[in-house]
């Protein structure tokens, strides 16, 4: 990457073209994490697999993405930034289209994994371009563009996926990547300077670190995605995989701290603002991804919404952000970026706490105000936290910082989704037991309810009293389960809000960032 932009007061036209194109890639990569979520049942039916196995459609993509993000900086130096970015843009499109032609679970898992591997490179490279192509004074604008991709894509993913699936079939969600990818590739060919490959770096590569990290992260991601379904450590598969993840990730950390040329520069955590910013990003990632998970689950399981209806509700968590994020750079010039971030995080948290009193009457319309508040909060979070994280990063460490922070934010999201899924399951069981203690045949209210329901079924076509009574008991059981499930989702929203409060505290540990100030060592 040329250092000319860093020395200039303003980036030139070609730099903005390159950055805008790279943001398309980041947006599409993050969008594809969530775009299949609202359509999983349709995809599972289309490729002939069950609900349990269908989860691998999302898991395989996330594994590919989270493994490649930390090594993207190294690979972009080996194969040259321009060539590496363009090739992965095209591969991302091709693997995406290939997903629509799969007819069994195995081929879908392979194609989604390869799509995630190619798409995962687009996220840190977009972030790196902001730090290396823009002068410090203009970086908040680039960070705002990146924030739009990071927060808008997960929110709008289920909306796009649900609409396309309900109206045109599940295959179309994999075609949506083609036009933006072609535009992105053409723009990058025009705007980026060519550089020679440095294949000699392959000999100097931290291969022990790369292999141990890849195995550890792949195992950990699988544990997080599959753990709740398999009842966590009650499953030998999950237990063994957790041991593998722990061994290889501990080995990876030790290697990175002592090797001469580490693939991941863990020493960046010795910088206070980077550590505080990444901590904030991990907790925000937890909330961002888990909130995109929990709301569709509630609407689908409790309110019986279809994919398109779920997408329409979630649209209000994304669309307002497009209007608000462009104002973030100006806001950051007037106020301490730490307080802007904290204000956004607390608004996000408030939107979650507003959902802790869910009831059967809470459906799409009732989520409008919390979703708009959440959109406002999210719009105020990523840009200032990114500014805090990168405030002391010198240009030569930009790629490493980008890969590390983006990987950990996505990992935080994976942990968040797994945690909230488990909490909803366990709390639903807890509330079901509590309610069940009160709803017994020894209760006059219960006996009266059974009698009235029995009479209802007898008057609506059931001729046998015993059958009608059994239907009445089943109906009461279903009501208990549904109410317990609602309470479990309420608890899940409460946990997300609590995690966001922790994120706000983490951000406050950062030092004040002066608007437009040069990073330490970059003068």
Describe this entry's structure for a reader.
With 523 residues, the protein is mostly helical. Helices cover 73% and strands 0% of the residues. The chain is built from 23 helices and no strands. Helix 9 (122-133) packs antiparallel against helix 10 (139-168) and helix 14 (272-301) runs antiparallel to helix 20 (382-390). The two termini are 18 Å apart. Mean pLDDT is 85; it is low at 1-7 and 517-523.
How many β-strand runs? 0
Which regions have little confidence, pLDDT < 50, spanning 5+ residues?
1-7, 517-523
Going by helix content, strand content and strand pairing, the class is mainly alpha
Q: Measured on Cα atoms, how large is the radius of gyration? A: 25 Å
Major beta sheet summary: none
Mean pLDDT figure: 85
Q: Into which percentage range does the β-strand content fall?
A: under 5%
Helix content: over 70%
Question: What's this entry about, in short?
Answer:
Helix content is 73%, strand content 0%. It is built from 23 helices and no strands.
Task: Please describe the structure with a list of short key phrases separated by commas or semicolons.
mainly alpha, disordered C terminus
Set down the secondary structure blueprint.
Elements: H1 4-7, H2 13-34, H3 40-47, H4 51-54, H5 56-68, H6 72-79, H7 81-99, H8 105-120, H9 122-133, H10 139-168, H11 178-191, H12 207-226, H13 236-258, H14 272-301, H15 307-314, H16 319-324, H17 328-334, H18 337-353, H19 368-379, H20 382-390, H21 398-438, H22 444-458, H23 465-508
Helix pairs in contact: 2-9, 2-10, 2-11, 5-8, 5-12, 6-7, 7-8, 7-11, 9-10, 9-21, 10-14, 10-15, 10-20, 12-13, 12-21, 14-15, 14-20, 14-21, 14-23, 18-19, 18-20, 18-23, 21-23, 22-23
């Amino acid at each position: 990457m040329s250092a000319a932009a860093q020395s200039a007061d303003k980036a030139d036209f070609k730099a903005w073209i390159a950055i805008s194109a790279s943001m398309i890639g980041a947006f599409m990569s993050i969008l594809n994490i969530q775009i299949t979520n609202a359509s999983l049942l349709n995809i599972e039916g289309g490729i002939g697999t069950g609900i349990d196995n269908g989860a691998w459609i999302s898991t395989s993509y996330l594994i590919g993405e989270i493994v490649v993000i930390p090594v993207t900086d190294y690979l972009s130096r080996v194969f040259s930034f321009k060539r590496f970015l363009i090739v992965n843009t095209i591969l991302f499109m091709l693997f995406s289209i290939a997903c629509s032609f799969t007819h069994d679970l195995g081929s879908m898992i392979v194609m989604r994994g390869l799509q995630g591997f190619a798409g995962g490179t687009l996220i840190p490279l977009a972030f790196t371009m902001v730090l290396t192509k823009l002068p410090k004074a203009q970086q908040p604008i680039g960070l705002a563009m990146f924030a739009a991709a990071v927060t808008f894509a997960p929110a709008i993913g289920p909306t796009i996926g649900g609409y396309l699936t309900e109206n045109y079939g599940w295959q179309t969600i994999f075609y949506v990547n083609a036009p933006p990818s072609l535009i992105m590739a053409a723009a990058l060919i025009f705007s980026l300077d060519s550089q020679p490959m440095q294949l000699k770096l392959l000999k100097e590569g931290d291969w022990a670190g790369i292999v141990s990290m890849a195995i550890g992260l792949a195992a950990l991601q699988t544990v997080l995605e599959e753990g709740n379904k398999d009842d966590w450590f009650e499953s030998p598969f999950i237990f063994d995989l957790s041991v593998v993840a722990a061994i290889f990730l501990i080995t990876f950390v030790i290697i990175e701290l002592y090797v001469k040329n580490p693939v991941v520069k863990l020493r960046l955590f010795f910088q206070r603002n980077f550590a505080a910013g990444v901590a904030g990003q991990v907790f925000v990632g937890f909330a961002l991804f888990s909130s995109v998970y929990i709301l569709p689950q509630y609407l689908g399981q409790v309110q019986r919404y279809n994919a398109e209806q779920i997408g329409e509700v979630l649209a209000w968590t994304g669309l307002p952000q497009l209007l608000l994020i462009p104002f973030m750079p100006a806001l950051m010039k007037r106020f301490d970026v730490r307080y802007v971030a904290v204000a956004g995080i607390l608004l996000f948290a408030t939107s979650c706490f507003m959902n802790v009193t869910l009831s059967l009457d809470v459906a799409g319309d009732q989520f409008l105000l919390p979703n708009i508040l959440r959109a406002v909060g999210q719009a105020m979070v990523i840009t200032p936290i990114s500014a805090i994280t990168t405030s002391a990063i010198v240009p030569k460490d930009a790629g490493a910082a980008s890969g590390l922070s983006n990987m950990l934010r996505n990992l935080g999201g994976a942990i968040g989704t797994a945690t909230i899924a488990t909490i909803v399951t366990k709390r639903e069981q807890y509330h079901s037991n509590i309610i069940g203690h009160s709803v017994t045949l020894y209760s006059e209210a219960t006996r009266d309810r059974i009698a009235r329901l029995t009479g209802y079924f007898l008057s609506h076509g059931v001729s046998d009293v015993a059958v009608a009574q059994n239907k009445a008991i089943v109906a009461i059981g279903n009501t208990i389960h549904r109410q317990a499930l609602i309470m479990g989702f309420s608890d899940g929203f409460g946990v997300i809000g609590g995690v966001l409060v922790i994120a706000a505290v983490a951000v406050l540990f950062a030092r004040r960032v002066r608007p437009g100030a040069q990073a330490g060592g970059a003068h």
